[in-house]
Amino acid sequence: MQALPHVLLLFCPCSGQTFTGINRTDAIILIQTSERARQGRLRATFMQEIQREEERDRKIREEGHQRFTQDQSAVIIQKVWKGHQQRKRTQQDRLAEMEFIGMLPSTNQAERFRIMSRAKLREETRRLRQVEKEEQFQLAMEKTPEALREVEGPDLKEKMKDQIRQWFIECHALTGRFPDYPEESLGGSYLIFADKTPEQVKLELEIQSQESKKKKQEKNKKKETGQPTPEKNKKKEKEKKTRVVRHLLKHRADLWQNRPESKHPDQNFDSETLRKEKRKEVELEIRIQVDELMRQELKNLRLAVDKEEERPLKAPKAVEG
């Protein structure tokens, strides 16, 4: 209560009155009155400023755009530009302060974190894409043979049968007898499908039988003469590996070196190459089935021809007259 006269003096400095012996309630009422008067004056000033702004905007709308002098335009431009620079500088200072007290990572750390995040995102995307492509490839691996069997299987089987029958006829016309059907261990009807004449096929069969005999003779000689030296074994193994590597390099060059990758921008599997590989498997399955059928057909042909040849010729009947 001793400081109350000083407070009242601040609110009413020009009165020159001293407030002694005033009670507490009157003092509070006096303070509230002065504070409300001050707030009222501030509010009146604020409302006057708003009214002036509205009046200025109304005049601008009625008269058109306000025309500024060169100095006024320069001041406005400077004010906007300096405000922009100061806001940018303040933001940089705030970031530097936050970085200094450890509330934000440093610029290098932030850049490194951004790069690592981007790399991790790309890696996850790549792995998801690999899984998706692998699923598509495995599904195609399962469906392609079935599609080939359904679409190309019947025609391929009939084509094989026609080729084998034609081979039967040509061999019978050339040699006077039906040929021996190639064994499955020698390739079966694959030898017939090699676009070769019956003489060539017969010659190849003879060569293969001779080679098998030579191999047996060489094995017997090795047993008699003993085991070969380690140097010869190493040399043979080296030559064998060299031939394998050359064959693989040639296969890679023929298949992949001049391959137009523009056909596969999404890096999908090559459906045509997959069909070629699976077509070989389907042909092998069909060939085994056709071999069984044609072996039986060859037996039936031989029986029919043998009966026809063994049947005695009947003498022609004498013509009465």
TrEMBL record:
Residues spanning the signal sequence: 1-16
UniProt KW Manganese keyword: no
UniProt entry keywords in alphabetical sequence: Signal
Listed Basic and acidic residues bias regions: 221-242, 260-276
InterPro entries (alphabetical): IQ_motif_EF-hand-BS, N-DRC_Component
Region called Disordered, residue ranges: 208-276
PANTHER family reported for this sequence: IQ AND AAA DOMAIN-CONTAINING PROTEIN 1-LIKE (PTHR14690:SF6), IQ MOTIF CONTAINING WITH AAA DOMAIN 1 (PTHR14690)
Entry protein name: Uncharacterized protein
